[in-house]
Amino acid sequence: MTVKAIVTDVEGTTSDIDFVHKVLFPYSRERIPAFIAEHIGDPALAPYLSMVSAETGLAVDDAEGIADLMQHWIDEDLKHTALKAVQGMIWRDGFEQEVFKAHVYPDAVHHLRRWHAAGIPLYVYSSGSVAAQQLYFTHSAAGDLSALFSGHYDTTSGGKREAQSYQKIAADIGVAPADLLFLSDIEAELDAASQAGWQTVQVVREGTLASERHRQVTDFGGVGV
Ligand SMILES: [Mg+2]
């Protein structure tokens, strides 16, 4: 197969979905009260506390009340800009203090390195923010992998299940859709990429719902690039 650039999903594709759900999310939930209390006067945190205060009527310096509310949002799986920002700051601390290292499957590490060495530009497209993606690959258990990627895309480029997003990303990368390969574990994302004219391969990890509509591999070695 001829491929001029590869775009990969993260959760369930390069990385174990459990790392995010069983390590990162519980850590941020547990750390929120102490983090907000410790950083209450911090200018990086202030706009998000003001945002929550304006929306809910909680006092901007009510660290406990805001922390309780944010933990409740996590339990409800509510995606709020302020919550995402605070989680990002907590994860940054966790990665930098080496509380944990990001999981990347060994086959993904090996082949991402190999493709990069072969001169194939690599990109990430994930629902996690670009900043979170960079943090993740900088602090992987296999070392700093951030230099392997030529660019990152998140949902500011559109939803992962919408063909338009893939058209937009192809235009931004500057490679014809037919020469782009998207790797993901999710059928609906692969369908959208395929609709936009991209090549697709489904990476089937433990727990992945296999798709009939896309070529499947069980690790990056099967991709055949
Ligand atoms: Mg995924």
What features would you describe in this structure?
By secondary structure, the chain is of the alpha/beta class. It folds into two domains: 5-16 and 103-223, 3-Layer(aba) Sandwich (Rossmann fold), CATH 3.40.50; 21-96, Transcription Termination Factor Rho, Rna-binding Domain, Chain A, Domain 1 (Orthogonal Bundle). The chain has eight helices and six strands; from the N terminus they run βαααααβαβαβαββ. The protein has helices at residues 17-38, 46-56, 63-75, 81-96, 106-117, 130-138, 163-173, 187-195, and strands at 5-8, 122-125, 151-153, 180-184, 199-203, 215-217. Strands 3-2-1-4-5-6 form a six-stranded parallel β-sheet, with helices on both faces. Helix 6 links the parallel strand 2 and strand 3. Helix 1 crosses helix 4 (81-96), helix 2 (46-56) packs antiparallel against helix 4 (81-96) and helix 7 (163-173) crosses helix 8 (187-195). Magnesium ion binds at residues 9, 11-13, 184-186.
